[in-house]
Amino acid sequence: MDTPQIEYFYSAHSAYAYLGAPTLTRIAKDTGAKIVHRPFDFMPVVQAAGATGFKQRSAAHINYFFGREVRRWAQWRELEILDFRPTHHDNPLGTASGMILAATDPDALSFAILQAHWRDDADIADRATLMTIAHDCGENSQALMDAAASADVQAQFAANTAEAIARGVFGSPTYFVGGDMFYGQDRLEMVARAITQPFAP
Question: What is the per-residue pLDDT for 199?
């Protein structure tokens, strides 16, 4: 029997990817599913979907998101989180995403990068910061940094972004099980169900 897969499309700075990551890992462990990491470039994906960047949304929406919504979910998921928008939130994601794609254990490294951003206010575009995170996850940090910058890995990052657009992804995180799309970490219980009981329209 083939190993079930959860295709995991997300940006490496996504609050909801961070909040859902431990639950996703638990679901994969409980069901025997493999998480297939598809980190993508966030703005091209949301723009292709016709959405606006977060900074273009209303002050009320932004205040609600950072002041209430993510903090409530953090309490629910029992995770620590900043009570403000991360300082370096608009920095490029290519290197962090490349490291996830090249990692020996992408599940652990991905969560560590997300956690550093949302718990520690780390700059996940900074090479030294990323190498420290990788080292703490048991990776060969220099080799991983070299791999992340390689043409093949950066081409995969670009391909993930193009594939997300082609498959109608409009936000992060988005999960696919057997081609069925689930948007948002609040759908993870449905993701778990879909592994053993696919949706029958």
Answer: 78
| Token reading at 179 | 């081609």
Does the residue 201 lie in any domain?
no
Confidence of residue 59 (pLDDT cuts 50, 70, 90): confident
Query: What total number of domains does the chain contain?
Result: 1
Residue 59 sits in a domain whose CATH number is 3.40.30.10
Domain range for 46 is: 5-196
Q: Per mean pLDDT, which range of 13-22, 28-37, 75-84, 148-157 is the poorest?
A: 75-84
- What does the alpha-carbon distance between residue 2 and residue 153 come to, in Å, rounded to a whole number? 26
Query: How would you class 63 by CB atoms within 10 Å of its CB: exposed for 0-12, middle for 13-18, buried for 19 or more?
Result: exposed
Which residues touch 131 (CB under 8 Å, ≥6 apart)?
Answer: 141, 142, 144, 145
